């Protein structure tokens, strides 16, 4: 850490001498400040970069200029004549106030004489001109975004702007593959980009424009004019050249954009662990519900299809996706279909340390996992807007997945050594649909009606084949020469939601919204476990309290009032909902729970100025548990875990508060944000645990034991000359009570993560970044555990000999705990790319895992287990790639 800080310090000191700062105010002839006035400094000599700034709410500006450079500085403001200043190289005058004179016709549009503005800010929209931040080395949208101030792209393709996650991704104002960011940032060519827009409080519904309260952040990609009616993209093929492991890659990203139709195709076949489909993609694509309603949790699980493809010993992935967006008269049709097929083999070794009040048990575990998954998601949406005051929307989605997995597991303790062959199969079918109708029925009255329906069916099967009896104190297993336990489940889920909302605009500063709705969730859940004996007989576990046949029906009828009013810079919204919950469960007996509950909410926003905002939110939430927590009988969950539900569970109640603050000054290259959340459960559902060696039995109970969770996060970034520095902090505190072996124990968890990064931001410099992260974790409960995490990352990208681009990145991770256990893991990747200017061909040699690291080490801590994990990963891979750009 000290070495890293010293490097950053000397880099900053070595470059600060080559910059100077001009400061001052922008005012009019009556001495009134002109907030957000644009200041652009154009070098009078070639080869220098344009500089830009904007005045803050007090009219103050700060403009960082290169020494030994003369600039023509132009200040502009709508309704005023622009003013110019020639700032001589090495001028001693560092303070200058601009006084603008008003135009006679203030409505006259200002004509900007420069070809482009690097950044434009209009209320909730920030627009970046791509060529102001890129140097031509970028291949995809991801690399271009990473060079824009306030924008971050994580390793899974998620995009954040000013600390807020992008929730909708569009190209030319149209959704790109359902609005997910990963497929966009990793497939849209950088040379097709013109501008990037970030739109806060985004709403795609023009009928609700006056009353929309969206908290969504959209990213809209604007293409160059020659790409607006054009087929573009690239096709890549790669093969291994250093060894004979049959590693290969074929990838295609092809796009056609025209005024009335957009088509995109992405295909990928690879054996090098390249992830095309992630958990985030599954979450987005498996949506299919109206944004006006709360998302329904699915009882089937598609997320197993998005395995972490990096930590495997073998990976064969096939992916194909097509997206269509077209408009016929007043109907807009959008749709996408995604297919994914994966074959994955993984190997891991784990040492578990179980804490049980007064004793400690050790387990050595080794597993080999073989995954064969198939998935399809198809979505179609019709958007009909007969006029500006009415809108109809219908969306239908079908999901299918098929899983065939095998796990060879060996678990060893001082008392036993057992080998398991575990097979898992499932077929899942889900159909979702919703319809929306929005109409402005009068000048100040608008209606919204929404109906949402979801049906799903799943039939998972599991079996455990082993050489020794297991869970003998929990399951009615019979003695045999070998043991085969077979489990089946049948899950059918049917939900429907209705919502009618009335928007009443009392005046410009006061709105009243009325909500009436009902939601119904029906679930049929059947589970069965039995032992198939070697003589052919069947030992049915129903006699031992296993086997479930549950009918679950939850209805929530609600009425709510929302009053929104504005006082100066405050936007305040008190909300009150009345919910009538009715829960019925049918199994061994019938249980009914009915509750009438008030749920208040309160939102407040304060806008200091266009760039500085604060918000506060509070809500009281009542939540009933999912169907599987209500089963009366036992369920076998794993080789060492048995679960039993609780048919008498009632609702959890918790208070949620959040406070957010953001201050963004793009032209001064200074940005920071912070948020604080607090969640307090007054009644909570927690699993009571009985632990016998490594075996566990759990059942959920409703308690009055309070739970508190605090979360504080912040980000600060500042551009110093041509280096962007950022600091991130995340702090989390969580306390709760947990019953283990009939003893109630208080647990306290704390986690702190701090990250500092430095990155060059100059089109003529190599792209170099360096970062350091330090994490601390502490758990107090049955035992006290501490862990410490460190990671270091660096990356370099530069062009040489005009047509060559070299890239390299390196990461290392260190984990330690208070038992002096330590793990270390490092990985590096590199590539050399050749592309002759104006040539459609690109040649590349890339190396994954240069250091040929075999094992990824990690230490994790839960309430009663400390685990040391060793995961085997793909070896060094050297590939030769050829890419053809359309």
TrEMBL record:
InterPro entries: CarboxyPept-like_regulatory. Transmembrane segments: none annotated. It comes from Flavobacterium urocaniciphilum. This is CarboxypepD_reg-like domain-containing protein. It holds the Pfam family CarbopepD_reg_2. Keywords: Signal. Residues 1-20 form the signal peptide.
């Amino acid at each position: 850490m000290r070495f890293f800080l010293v490097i950053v310090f000397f880099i900053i000191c070595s470059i600060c001498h080559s910059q100077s700062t001009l400061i001052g105010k922008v005012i009019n002839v009556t001495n009134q400040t002109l907030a957000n006035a644009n200041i652009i400094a154009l070098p009078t000599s070639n080869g220098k970069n344009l500089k830009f700034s904007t005045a803050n709410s007090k009219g103050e500006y700060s403009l960082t200029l290169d020494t030994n450079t003369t600039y023509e500085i132009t200040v502009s403001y709508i309704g005023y004549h622009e003013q110019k200043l020639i700032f001589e190289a090495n001028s001693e005058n560092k303070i200058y106030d601009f006084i603008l004179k008003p135009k006679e016709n203030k409505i006259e549009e200002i004509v900007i004489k420069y070809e482009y503005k690097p950044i434009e800010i209009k209320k909730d929209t920030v627009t970046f001109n791509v060529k102001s931040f890129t140097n031509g080395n970028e291949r995809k949208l991801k690399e271009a975004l990473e060079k824009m101030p306030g924008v971050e792209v994580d390793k899974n393709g998620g995009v954040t702007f000013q600390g807020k996650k992008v929730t909708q991704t569009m190209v030319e104002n149209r959704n790109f593959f359902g609005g997910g960011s990963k497929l966009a940032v990793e497939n849209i060519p950088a040379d097709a980009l013109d501008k990037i827009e970030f739109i806060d409080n985004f709403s795609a519904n023009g009928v609700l424009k006056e009353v929309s309260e969206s908290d969504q952040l959209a990213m809209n990609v604007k293409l160059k004019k020659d790409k607006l009616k054009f087929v573009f993209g690239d096709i890549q093929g790669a093969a291994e050249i250093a060894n004979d492991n049959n590693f290969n890659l074929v990838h295609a990203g092809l796009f056609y954009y025209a005024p009335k139709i957009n088509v995109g195709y992405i295909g990928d076949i690879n054996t090098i662990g390249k992830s095309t489909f992630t958990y985030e993609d599954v979450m987005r694509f498996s949506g299919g519900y109206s944004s006006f309603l709360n998302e329904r949790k699915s009882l089937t699980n598609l997320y197993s299809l998005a395995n972490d493809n990096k930590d495997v010993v073998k990976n064969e992935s096939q992916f194909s996706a097509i997206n269509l967006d077209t408009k016929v008269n007043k109907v807009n049709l959008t749709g996408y279909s995604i297919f994914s097929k994966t074959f994955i083999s993984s190997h891991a070794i784990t040492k578990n340390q179980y804490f049980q009040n007064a004793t400690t048990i050790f387990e050595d575990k080794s597993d080999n996992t073989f995954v064969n998954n198939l998935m399809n998601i198809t979505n179609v949406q019709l958007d009909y807007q007969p006029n500006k005051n009415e809108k109809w929307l219908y969306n239908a989605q079908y999901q299918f997945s098929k899983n065939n997995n095998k796990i060879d597991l060996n678990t060893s303790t001082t008392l036993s050594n057992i080998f398991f062959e575990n097979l898992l199969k499932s077929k899942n079918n889900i159909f979702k649909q919703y319809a929306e109708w929005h109409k402005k029925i009068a000048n100040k009255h608008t209606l919204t009606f929404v109906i949402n329906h979801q049906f799903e069916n799943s039939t998972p099967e599991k079996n455990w084949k082993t050489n020794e009896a297991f869970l003998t104190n929990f399951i009615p297993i019979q003695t045999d020469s070998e043991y085969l336990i077979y489990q089946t489940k049948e899950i059918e889920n049917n939900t429907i939601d209705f919502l009618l909302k009335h928007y009443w605009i009392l005046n410009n500063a006061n709105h009243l919204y009325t909500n009436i709705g009902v939601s119904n969730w029906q679930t049929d859940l059947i589970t069965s476990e039995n032992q198939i004996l070697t003589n052919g007989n069947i030992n049915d576990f129903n006699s031992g309290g296993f086997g479930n046949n549950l009918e679950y029906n939850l209805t929530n009828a609600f009425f709510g009032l929302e009053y929104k009013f504005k006082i100066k810079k405050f936007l305040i919204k008190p909300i009150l909902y009345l919910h009538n919950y009715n829960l019925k469960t049918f199994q061994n007996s019938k249980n009914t729970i009915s509750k009438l509950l008030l749920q208040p909410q309160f939102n407040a926003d304060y806008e200091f100025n266009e760039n500085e905002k604060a918000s506060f939110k509070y809500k009281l939430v009542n939540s009933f548990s999912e169907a599987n927590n209500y089963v009366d009988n036992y369920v076998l969950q794993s080789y060492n875990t048995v679960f039993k539900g609780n048919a008498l569970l009632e609702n959890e109640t918790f208070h949620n508060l959040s406070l957010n603050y953001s201050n963004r000054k793009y032209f001064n290259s200074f940005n920071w944000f912070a948020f604080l959340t607090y969640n307090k459960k007054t009644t909570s559902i927690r699993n009571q645990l009985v632990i016998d060696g490594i075996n566990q039995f759990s059942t959920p109970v409703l308690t009055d034991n309070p739970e508190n969770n605090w979360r504080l996060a912040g980000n600060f970034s500042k551009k110093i000359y041509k280096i962007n520095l950022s600091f991130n902090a995340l702090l989390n505190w969580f306390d709760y009570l947990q019953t283990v072996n009939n003893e109630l124990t208080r647990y306290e968890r704390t986690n702190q993560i701090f990250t500092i990064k430095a990155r060059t931001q100059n089109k003529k410099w190599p792209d170099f970044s360096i970062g350091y992260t330090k994490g601390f974790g502490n758990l107090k409960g049955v035992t006290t555990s501490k862990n410490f995490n460190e990671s270091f990352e660096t990356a370099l990208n530069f062009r040489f000999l005009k047509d060559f681009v070299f890239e390299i990145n390196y990461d290392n991770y260190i984990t330690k705990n208070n038992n002096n256990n330590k793990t270390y893991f490092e990985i590096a990747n590199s590539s050399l790319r050749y592309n002759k200017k104006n040539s459609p061909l690109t040649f590349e040699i890339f190396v994954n895992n240069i250091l040929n690291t075999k094992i990824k080490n990690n230490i994790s801590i839960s309430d009663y287990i400390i685990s040391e994990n060793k995961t085997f990963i793909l070896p060094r891979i050297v590939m030769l790639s050829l890419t053809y750009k359309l």
